[in-house]
C-alpha cells in the first residue's frame, strides 16, 4: 500500500514538473458574439492555445485579475451602472459566480487586488472615480467602503487604472492627466500628492508598471503615444524621461493601451492601437532609462491588453477589432518578439495567466 502511495505521489510531482500547460483567461465585450470570460490551455513549450471554452457568462467583463493565491478571479462589468464581480476558480479552471457589487460609477475599466488579497480597487472611466472594496475570506466583495472622486467643475476625470504597492495606492487618471498617490491611514486612503510626476499636456496616462522593488514607474500615455519614466525618491518620484512608443516612420493616429515589464525587468513592452504594434524597450536597470529596439506588428487590429506567460518565453496580445489573440515568441536575451500564431475569439480585450 505504501509503495503504491509513493508511486502516486512521485507521478503527481513529475506531472506537475513536466506539464507545460497553463490556463489563460480572456475578458471580452459581450455586445456581439462573446458571452463572457473564456479559458484556454496554453502550452509554454510550443506556444499553442487550445481547448477554448466559456469559463463563465458575464456582461462586458473587460478587465479581469486574480487574487494573490489565484483561488478567486475578479472582473469589472463595464456598463453604465458599473459593477465588479467575484468568481471562485474551480479545479477544472471554470469559474463559479460568488457575488457582484456596485462600483459607484459608470463604465469600470480596471480592477486590482492588494498583495494581502483583502482589498480591491476599481477604476470607473466615465464615472471618473475609484471605488475601494474589502474582500471577505470566501472571496466575496463587500460594498465600497471609500470612493475617490477626482471630478472638478472644469476638468472631466477619467479614471483608468490603479495599483496597490504596500500601503500606497497609485491611480492613473486620463482626464486629469496625472497619476495620484494615496496612502492607507485608519482604514481609509488619504491623498499624498495629486501628481507623482509632471506629464506633458494631453498625455492621457492610462496604465503603468512598477518594478518589483517599487523604485521605478513606467506610465503609458494613451493620447500622446508615449511612456513616461520616473524614479522613487525619499520625497516622491523624480522624472527621468518621456519617449514615443511609435515607429519613427509612422504618421497616423494611434492610442496606447497596455504596458508590462519582462519577468527579469530587462525589457518593457507596450501596445499601440492605430499603429497596431507592440513596442519593445531595452531597460537600463540602474538608471531606469529606456532604449526603443522594436516595433512589431500585432497581426491584428486594435491591440488592448497583453500578457507575458509564466515562463516569460511568450507574449500574447488581445486584438479587439480583429477578434483574435496573437502569440509571439520572446527572445529572453534580446527582448525581441517574433510572431508565432493566432486564434480567433470575439472582442478579446484582457488576458490573464
UniProtKB/TrEMBL annotation:
Keywords: Carbohydrate metabolism, Glucose metabolism
SUPFAM superfamilies: C-terminal (heme d1) domain of cytochrome cd1-nitrite reductase
One Pfam family here: Lactonase
Presence of the UniProt keyword Metal-binding in the record: no
Family: Belongs to the cycloisomerase 2 family.
Protein name, per record: Lactonase family protein
Organism of derivation: Hwangdonia seohaensis
Amino acid at each position: 500500500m505504501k509503495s503504491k502511495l509513493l508511486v502516486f505521489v512521485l507521478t503527481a510531482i513529475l506531472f506537475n514538473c513536466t506539464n507545460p500547460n497553463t490556463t489563460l483567461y480572456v475578458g471580452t465585450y459581450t455586445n456581439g458574439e462573446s458571452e463572457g470570460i473564456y479559458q484556454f490551455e496554453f502550452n509554454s513549450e510550443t506556444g499553442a492555445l487550445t481547448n477554448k471554452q466559456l469559463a463563465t457568462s458575464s456582461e462586458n467583463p473587460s478587465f479581469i485579475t486574480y487574487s494573490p493565491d489565484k483561488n478567486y478571479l475578479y472582473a469589472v462589468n463595464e456598463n453604465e451602472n458599473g459593477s465588479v464581480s467575484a468568481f471562485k476558480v474551480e479545479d477544472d479552471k471554470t469559474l463559479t459566480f460568488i457575488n457582484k457589487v456596485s462600483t459607484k460609477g459608470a463604465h469600470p475599466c480596471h480592477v486590482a487586488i492588494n498583495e494581502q488579497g483583502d482589498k480591491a480597487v476599481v477604476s470607473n472611466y466615465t464615472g471618473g472615480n475609484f471605488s475601494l472594496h474589502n474582500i471577505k475570506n470566501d472571496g466575496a466583495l463587500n460594498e465600497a467602503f471609500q470612493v475617490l472622486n477626482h471630478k472638478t467643475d472644469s476638468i472631466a476625470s477619467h479614471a483608468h487604472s490603479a495599483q496597490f504597492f504596500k500601503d500606497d495606492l497609485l491611480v492613473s487618471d486620463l482626464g486629469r492627466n496625472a497619476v495620484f498617490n494615496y496612502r492607507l491611514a485608519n482604514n481609509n486612503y488619504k491623498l499624498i500628492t495629486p501628481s507623482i510626476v509632471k506629464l506633458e499636456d494631453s498625455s492621457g496616462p492610462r496604465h503603468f508598471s512598477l518594478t518589483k522593488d517599487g523604485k521605478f514607474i513606467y506610465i503609458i500615455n494613451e493620447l500622446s503615444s508615449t511612456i513616461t519614466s520616473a524614479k522613487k525618491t525619499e520625497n516622491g518620484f523624480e522624472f527621468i524621461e518621456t519617449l514615443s512608443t511609435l515607429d519613427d516612420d509612422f504618421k497616423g493616429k494611434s492610442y496606447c493601451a497596455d504596458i508590462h515589464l519582462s519577468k527579469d525587468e530587462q525589457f518593457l513592452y507596450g501596445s499601440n492601437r492605430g499603429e497596431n504594434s507592440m513596442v519593445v524597450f531595452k531597460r537600463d536597470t540602474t538608471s531606469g532609462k529606456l532604449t526603443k529596439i522594436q516595433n512589431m506588428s500585432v497581426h491584428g487590429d486594435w491591440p488592448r491588453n497583453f500578457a507575458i506567460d509564466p515562463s516569460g518565453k511568450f507574449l500574447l496580445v488581445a486584438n479587439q477589432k480583429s477578434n483574435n489573440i496573437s502569440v509571439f515568441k520572446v527572445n529572453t536575451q534580446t527582448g525581441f518578439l517574433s510572431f508565432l500564431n493566432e486564434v480567433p475569439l470575439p472582442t478579446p480585450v484582457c488576458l490573464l495567466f
